[in-house]
Amino acid sequence: MSHVNPLLCTEEGLAAYILCITEGQGSILDTLTIGMAAFDPSTGEMIYDMFEDGANRNELERRLEHLNPTEVIVAENVSANTLKLLQHRFIFIRRQPNEIFDFTSCLVKVAAFFSSEGTISSANFQNLGDFAPTTLCCIGVLLHYVKECGLESSLKAEGLLHHWISQPLRNLVKVRQRQDMVEELIGSESGLMEELLNVLEGLPDLERGLTTILNLKCKPLGFYVVVTSLGNVCSKLQSLLNSDTERQSDHTRQLIMETVQLLSNVGLFANNLDKEAVRKEDKANLLIDKSEFPTLVNRQMKVSSLFSQLEALKPSIAIVIGSERFEYTSVGGHDFLIEVKITLPVPSTWRLVSQTKQFNRFRSPAVDALVTELIQLQEILVCDGEEVWLHTLEHFNNFYFPHKRAVKNLATLDVLQSLSELSRQNEYCKLVYRAVLSSSLVGLQSSEQCCMTVSGPNMGGKSCYLRQVALIVIMAHIGSFVPAKSATISLLDAVYVRMGARDELFTGRSTLLLELEEAQVILNCATQHSLVLMDELGRGTSSCDGAAIATATLHHLVKCLTLFVSHYPSVTQLTKLLFPSARNYHVAFMVKPEDDDDGKAVTLLYSVVEGLANESFGLNVARLANIRTDVLSRASHYTDILQSQPESTSILSIILITCLYYLTLASSTLMYAYTFPDNFIPNPVSPDDS
């Protein structure tokens, strides 16, 4: 969203959420119902959620990763697993007494907050019926905490694009509406994209500004920037509507018309602001039309009268001090001073205010009386100006929700314009959606096929292919065009990804445990309308156990739209049994023998084709990593040995082969208890290599 001018934002910085978490009993064994509410004290934004989570707290961790709170409020009896996760993320934890989380007291706090004039009625409680008890407890605790700490706020809106990506659409009608609007903006004959860019360019953070105004925490300049920006947007969009109606689709025109209608009253506020008073922060003179404030007008007239009277005294003062012309002097915050040389006599009734080595500064009784009255009136005017300012803000806040809706429409146009520009520059294509579970994005050719296993050389692009598919699917579900020549996809309910390898020493979880915990979530949650991407599951343990886990997992996931990357032969064999629901694919490559040694030169083609890959070419990666040649030579020899074994050869047999190979180097008279294969001939090794 490059059109936002950060210099015009009313406030800078990222959201710093205060998070409250409560726990309740889950619907099944070993699960918890977790309620949470997050509050940003700098903006006033509050979000809430309720979900079920397992013992590993995957769902909670995902939300913590998204919100990145600076402080978390929990009860004293919070579970050990939740506390361990929070401590691992180095978040400041504030543990509160369990009584504060009592549902009844929290319900009363929330009902009182939403009631008018502090009066709680039965209707207030009925309106809260849709909230889960755990969520209400979190909101009640946060309200108690905010009141206790005196935190007041304004709203910070997260980017709409971020919201679209984090919550893709599952409504085909809405997805196609967005697609149609993007397609219209891309059209080469339409200048609508450039005109929208002219409307949106240089805008401040309007949503943050609106909420700052809502909480009466903005300054006159901030109010002026927001109001004038909304007024300019309204007039430009109105001109856009009037210029050419034929090139605008129904959805685009309806969005622009709604925005103009929602902002129709902004011009009244913008045209009534005095720019010079805004610059000086003179709230008493902020409005051009003050007819609604007769008391303020009368006091300002009195102040003008006092200034005129002070000016009228200047000729008589000039006669007294023997000067042809006289002007008042202001020094050190004192105005309307009569400055004369120290040697010049003055009437005894004049009051000395200040003096220097050369000058004395006086006020005559008449001037003193007028200045005293003027100061009193000016102090009253400051209070009157504050009342006028607050009244103006409150009047403007009566239209907060229409204005907020209009700003959201502007954000929608901004996102669509950005997606259109990206699609046009990179020649993205428009997707075709179909009802059956299939996708040309992953090479599936029929409705019967929903699972593909991908094998092939290391560094061949298998993991990148998975990431590519996931990103394209998400782009498809936000209504964007996608980077492809053509694509057909069905609407999905979720995208599950298991990639990478890591451990968590602080929580005592190994790489394999983390992999399997993530796999467990996928196995429990994925449906036949989900996209599942698994990258080399089971590599953190022995080949036997890892292959067994991967094979069993794939067998369970064959109901989903699945991309399963694996080097295990058992996985590819299972795919043959599950045909036509599952098929084997591999990343394409070409092999050319090298002349200087027994190695092979592998050329990676970075494309996915149907069929099995006969090798993974891990030695080629080792060669790229500059592994010692003697180690590569041994590894190549071991590869020949292992590839000559039948698939049923056990891990113990492989270990025995390796041990006996080294024993052969030490003694040529050793009696073998294990029968080697016919092609097993140990290579001679020099003493330096041993």
TrEMBL record:
<dbReference type="GO" id="GO:0005524">
    <property type="term" value="F:ATP binding"/>
</dbReference>
<keyword id="KW-0234">DNA repair</keyword>
<dbReference type="GO" id="GO:0006298">
    <property type="term" value="P:mismatch repair"/>
</dbReference>
<dbReference type="InterPro" id="IPR045076">
    <property type="entry name" value="MutS"/>
</dbReference>
<dbReference type="InterPro" id="IPR036187">
    <property type="entry name" value="DNA_mismatch_repair_MutS_sf"/>
</dbReference>
<keyword id="KW-0238">DNA-binding</keyword>
<dbReference type="GO" id="GO:0006312">
    <property type="term" value="P:mitotic recombination"/>
</dbReference>
<dbReference type="InterPro" id="IPR036678">
    <property type="entry name" value="MutS_con_dom_sf"/>
</dbReference>
<dbReference type="InterPro" id="IPR007860">
    <property type="entry name" value="DNA_mmatch_repair_MutS_con_dom"/>
</dbReference>
<dbReference type="GO" id="GO:0140664">
    <property type="term" value="F:ATP-dependent DNA damage sensor activity"/>
</dbReference>
<keyword id="KW-0067">ATP-binding</keyword>
<protein>
    <recommendedName>
        <fullName>DNA mismatch repair proteins mutS family domain-containing protein</fullName>
    </recommendedName>
</protein>
<dbReference type="GO" id="GO:0030983">
    <property type="term" value="F:mismatched DNA binding"/>
</dbReference>
<dbReference type="InterPro" id="IPR007696">
    <property type="entry name" value="DNA_mismatch_repair_MutS_core"/>
</dbReference>
<dbReference type="InterPro" id="IPR027417">
    <property type="entry name" value="P-loop_NTPase"/>
</dbReference>
<dbReference type="Pfam" id="PF05188">
    <property type="entry name" value="MutS_II"/>
</dbReference>
<dbReference type="InterPro" id="IPR017261">
    <property type="entry name" value="DNA_mismatch_repair_MutS/MSH"/>
</dbReference>
<keyword id="KW-0227">DNA damage</keyword>
<dbReference type="GO" id="GO:0005634">
    <property type="term" value="C:nucleus"/>
</dbReference>
<dbReference type="Pfam" id="PF05192">
    <property type="entry name" value="MutS_III"/>
</dbReference>
<keyword id="KW-0547">Nucleotide-binding</keyword>
<feature type="domain" description="DNA mismatch repair proteins mutS family">
    <location>
        <begin position="530"/>
        <end position="546"/>
    </location>
</feature>
<dbReference type="InterPro" id="IPR000432">
    <property type="entry name" value="DNA_mismatch_repair_MutS_C"/>
</dbReference>
<dbReference type="Pfam" id="PF00488">
    <property type="entry name" value="MutS_V"/>
</dbReference>
